[in-house]
């Protein structure tokens, strides 16, 4: 928050600067008092680590609400109007107040501000800002930076800065669902992860900037605006967050070269960091083929893109593709349909949430394919949400293993080779049951939330509701149009919980809930 004050001052935005400074003071003061009060707390065990991770994530989202809320209340309405881009005439039905006012006004609602913060920190990308360009630069930056930090994990960041090597660090690290370590020390591991992440971000900014400059839309922008959009989209793309600073996400550009640059960027964010380490440190490019999760990620990206392209081409037809905000009343060609399918499936499976097409006009079959991709997610140990490929693979192998045992004698010794490890009966049962329980809880929550949403948003069908919940719970950010400032407060509050639970993969949140009710005893 304090660093972001500098961004506000450089942009000539005194009111956001004051709001960020106040938010930083409140947050730092609360943290200082809590740290002093609990300085003698023992190192956490695994159950404590889960409570800290779940409670910590929610607390970070609550304090992250302050910059949105304070900026909206401190900034005079006349100043807000100055944030609206020249020549923009936003629809007064979908924008806060008269058409000349900024979407910053939405964040006067504490629920809207909390939703935006939770969406940012969890890397979800769903937004209450109808028109992102009408936000002050400092708030655009705040949205991007919380996704960038949240992609790696707030608790992991805390471990890298504050924690000492030991059981406490390991408990927190595992609570972030990153089981694999690069170095023997967890602290060394997370610091290496941050070095890789920062390095990739620098490269991504440069590559996106060069691509943007060659696009027709980019040619209309000033050099400073090109750099600003490149910085923000590189941060939210690599972190698979999906927040944008343009009015229609990536559809604004309508440029194959920009989408082509983002495809590998989103894929990189969905690959586990230990794989990146082996490739960068040892030059072992074979890891992309040998690592089970990465191999299946690439297979699913190709197969899913082909299926979705066929679905859209056969079902929608040319005229049903509609128009984007950036190019009104322009029909999409067959090539555009294939391009949209590839980009949107990669965006969904990597849980990024960049949008290049009006998905709300797609058929239910296309929405269902994307919902499956968002539910599955990318690899464990990366920045993505969802169930994760390794769990889906473990459940599939476990079902096959259980079925195969039926035809073997009771005395048979059965083992399974999975991801380079040979698992005995007890190990396989443990891994299968863990993956199956988390997957079952994830899907059960998805179904229940979809039923709730379709009842509070009756203008939309169940396919849209399922899609929207999968996007929120999978921390993706794609939308068919349900999410927005006009949605039901019940649905909005439910989505805040969906995003929080999805980021922590359910179990830490259940442990946190049990601790609130019964304490952390046996």
TrEMBL record:
Annotated transmembrane regions: 15-38, 50-70, 145-173, 193-212, 261-280, 292-310, 368-390, 435-457, 495-517
GO molecular function, one term: monoatomic cation transmembrane transporter activity
Keywords: Cell membrane, Ion transport, Membrane, Transmembrane, Transmembrane helix, Transport
Gene Ontology CC: plasma membrane
Topological category with respect to the lipid bilayer: Multi-pass membrane protein
Main location: membrane
GO biological process, one term: metal ion transport
Pfam families, sorted: TrkH (PF02386)
Cellular location(s): Cell membrane
InterPro entries reported in the protein's UniProt record: Cat_transpt
Family to which the UniProt record says this protein belongs: Belongs to the TrkH potassium transport family.
Name of the protein described by the UniProt record: Potassium transporter Trk
């Amino acid at each position: 928050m304090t660093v972001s004050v500098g961004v506000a001052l450089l942009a000539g935005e005194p009111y956001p600067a004051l709001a960020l400074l106040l938010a930083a003071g409140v947050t730092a003061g609360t943290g200082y008092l809590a740290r002093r009060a609990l300085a003698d707390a023992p190192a956490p065990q695994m159950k404590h680590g889960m409570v800290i991770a779940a409670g910590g994530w929610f607390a970070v989202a609550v304090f992250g609400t302050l910059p949105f809320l304070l900026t909206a209340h401190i900034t005079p309405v006349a100043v807000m109007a100055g944030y609206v881009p020249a020549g923009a005439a936003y629809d007064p039905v979908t924008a806060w107040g008269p058409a000349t006012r900024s979407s910053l006004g939405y964040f006067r609602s504490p629920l809207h501000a909390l939703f935006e913060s939770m969406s940012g920190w969890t890397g979800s990308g769903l937004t209450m800002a109808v028109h992102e360009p009408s936000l002050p630069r400092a708030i655009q930056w705040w949205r991007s930076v919380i996704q960038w930090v949240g992609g790696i994990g707030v608790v992991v960041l805390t471990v890298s800065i504050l924690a000492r090597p030991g059981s406490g660090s390991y408990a927190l690290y595992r609570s972030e669902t990153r089981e694999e370590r690069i170095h023997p020390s967890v602290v060394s591991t997370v610091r290496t992860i941050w070095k890789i992440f920062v390095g990739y971000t620098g490269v991504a900014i440069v590559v996106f900037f060069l691509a943007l400059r060659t696009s027709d839309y980019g040619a209309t922008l000033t050099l400073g605006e090109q750099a600003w959009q490149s910085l923000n989209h590189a941060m939210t793309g690599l972190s698979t967050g999906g927040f944008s600073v343009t009015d229609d996400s990536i559809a604004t550009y309508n440029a194959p070269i920009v989408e082509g640059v983002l495809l590998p960027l989103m894929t990189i964010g969905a690959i586990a960091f230990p794989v990146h380490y082996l490739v960068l440190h040892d030059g072992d490019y074979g890891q992309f083929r040998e690592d089970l999760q990465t191999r299946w990620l690439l297979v699913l990206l190709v197969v899913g893109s082909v299926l979705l392209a066929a679905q859209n081409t056969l079902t929608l037809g040319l005229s049903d593709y509609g128009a984007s905000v950036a190019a009104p009343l322009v029909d999409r060609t067959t090539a555009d349909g294939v391009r949209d399918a590839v980009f949107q499936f990669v965006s969904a499976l990597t849980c990024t949430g960049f949008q290049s097409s009006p998905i709300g006009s797609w058929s239910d079959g296309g929405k269902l394919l994307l919902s499956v991709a968002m539910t599955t997610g990318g690899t464990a140990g990366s920045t993505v949400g969802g169930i994760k490929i390794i769990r889906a693979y473990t459940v599939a192998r476990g079902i096959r293993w259980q079925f195969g045992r039926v035809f073997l004698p009771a005395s048979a010794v059965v083992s399974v080779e999975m991801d380079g490890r040979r698992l005995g009966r007890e190990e396989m049962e443990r891994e299968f049951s863990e993956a199956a329980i988390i997957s079952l809880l994830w899907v059960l929550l998805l179904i229940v939330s979809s039923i709730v949403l379709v009842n509070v948003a009756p203008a939309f069908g169940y396919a849209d509701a399922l899609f929207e919940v999968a996007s929120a719970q999978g921390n993706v950010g794609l939308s068919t149009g349900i999410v927005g400032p006009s949605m039901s407060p019940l649905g909005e509050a439910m989505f805040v919980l969906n995003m929080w639970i999805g980021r922590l993969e359910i179990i830490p949140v259940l442990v946190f809930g049990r601790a609130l009710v019964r304490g952390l005893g046996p």
